Amino acid sequence: MNEYIEKNINDDFIIIEKGMTQEDYNSYIKNIKPLIGELVIVFNILENSVDYIIKEVVSDDLAQDEIAYIFLSEIMYSTKINILLKLYNYQLRNTKKDYKVALNELKQKLNEAGNIRNSIIHADWTDVTNDYYVKIKTKVKEEGAKNIYKILDKEIIKNQIDFINEVNNELNDFDEEYIDH
Questions:
Q1: pTM beyond 0.70
Q2: Which helix (H) or strand (E) holds 29?
Q3: Which DSSP string do the residues of 133-161 spell out, in sequence order?
Q4: Within 13 Å of residue 143, how many CA atoms lie on the same side as its CB?
Q5: Distance from chain centroid for Cα 138
């Protein structure tokens, strides 16, 4: 089963043929809500880890911590990741440690965690099929507008939660292994 489906906005979609009953939809939403909440929590923990590490690199003075957090509070997650990676490269540029492969893998996983979070938070939860495809965004290209659907059933969201937790652990492991604070 494909993870994503793209459909032209004006095309009939499987929702018309395989639409959920109101009872099935209510049950799906009731069962999925706690997982969405858990995903938001674990993602926020990951983002707080990113904030903390950036703050630790930028400032080792408790008086300056507040200033670092003032800036971090206004920065989007993707920008924080870019800053974090630049700080890691800066700190590790003169080291003999072979860190580039591990850092590139971490970058990909941090970005994927952000993509997962965005697909869940910005999904159109009123647009769900019997096989749990949920509209996660609309893309507009020269060929026209397309809705993007992704399967978001309980098992997939649980796996995404596990993935984000693993990314947080890998971030902290990388920081402990390669960076001296």
A1: yes
A2: helix 22-58
A3: EEEEEEEEETTEEEEEEEE--HHHHHHHH
A4: 8
A5: 18
If you count them, how many residues does the chain have? 181
Task: Put the strands of the sheet holding 124-128 in their side by side order.
Answer: 4-8, 144-151, 133-141, 124-128
For residue 26, the SS3 value is helix
DSSP calls for 32-91: HHHHHHHHHHHHHHHHHHHHHHHHHHH---HHHHHHHHHHHTTS-HHHHHHHHHHHHHHH
pLDDT in tens, 98-144: 889 999 999 999 999 999 999 999 999 988 888 888 999 888 988 88
Helix 100-121 vs helix 77-92: angle between axes, to the nearest 10 degrees? 170
CB distance 150 to 134 below 8 Å: yes
